[in-house]
């Protein structure tokens, strides 16, 4: 995609920016094309994960807070109805806990087990896709470094072939072309790592919210001895161990 003088050739009807990008991709070799593919997958995962967390209700604690307050005030029927009408993972978990406790003291242990099961499933669903982002953040810089090493090998082979007639500008050109893949790998890994860290913090907050809300529901029912203290945290650790 470059002319004999080394200047990028503009793609027909695409403008100089696209021509420059294609020229850089051509100079970077197979490694930079692999990194480009990873960037597309990473962008898709980031957008999908954002939608998935919104769909699971990671930011909908306020909607279920009123239901828990009604339950704590003794209005169990109203609290259960409000939880069922709420959106998100916290509302679903609270509804399960309230429904289990509605049967009386005999069902408290079973309600705790069911609440823990639902919490584990919700947290497992929330963590789906994080391993993919973690993998991309790890291998993108490695692919970039691999491409740079291959490019440096080619540059020094050309220098050896040229012998005494080798020009410094030619060597410098080969080196900066080789470094393109390292820069590309880091450009992909940095935003992916940032997105991964943010998503993990959102899921940690969801885990804490679920633990707090479920604990308050059980404690308000006088089931302190059987309340699933740390139920969401335990479910999260179980999911992490399974992965």
TrEMBL record:
Membrane topology: Multi-pass membrane protein
Localization of this protein: Cell membrane; Membrane
Chain ranges passing through the membrane: 31-52, 135-158, 178-199
Superkingdom, taxonomy of origin: Bacteria
Location of the MotA/TolQ/ExbB proton channel domain: 105-211
Statement: the UniProt record of this protein carries the keyword Magnesium: no
Primary location recorded for the protein, binned into one broad class: membrane
Family: Belongs to the exbB/tolQ family.
Protein name: MotA/TolQ/ExbB proton channel family protein
């Amino acid at each position: 995609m470059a002319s004999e003088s080394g200047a990028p050739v503009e793609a027909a009807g695409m403008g100089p920016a696209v021509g420059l990008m294609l020229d850089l991709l051509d100079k970077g070799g197979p490694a930079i094309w692999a990194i480009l593919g990873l960037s597309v997958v990473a962008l898709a995962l980031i957008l999908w994960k954002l939608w998935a967390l919104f769909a699971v209700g990671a930011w909908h604690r306020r909607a279920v807070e009123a239901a828990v307050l009604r339950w704590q005030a003794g209005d169990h029927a109203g609290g259960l109805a409000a939880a069922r009408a709420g959106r998100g993972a916290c509302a679903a978990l609270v509804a399960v806990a309230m429904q289990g406790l509605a049967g009386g003291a005999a069902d408290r242990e079973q309600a705790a087990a069911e609440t823990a099961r639902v919490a584990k499933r919700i947290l497992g669903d929330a963590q789906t896709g994080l391993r993919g982002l973690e993998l991309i953040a790890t291998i993108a810089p490695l692919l970039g470094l691999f491409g740079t090493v291959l490019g440096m090998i080619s540059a020094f082979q050309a220098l050896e072939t040229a012998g005494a007639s080798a020009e410094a500008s030619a060597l410098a050109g080969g080196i900066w072309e080789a470094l393109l893949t390292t820069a590309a790998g880091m450009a992909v890994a940095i935003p992916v790592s940032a997105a991964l860290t943010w998503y993990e913090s959102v899921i940690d907050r969801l885990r804490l919210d679920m633990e707090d809300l479920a604990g308050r529901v059980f404690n308000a029912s006088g089931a302190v001895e059987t309340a699933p203290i740390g139920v969401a945290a335990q479910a999260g650790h179980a999911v992490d161990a399974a992965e």
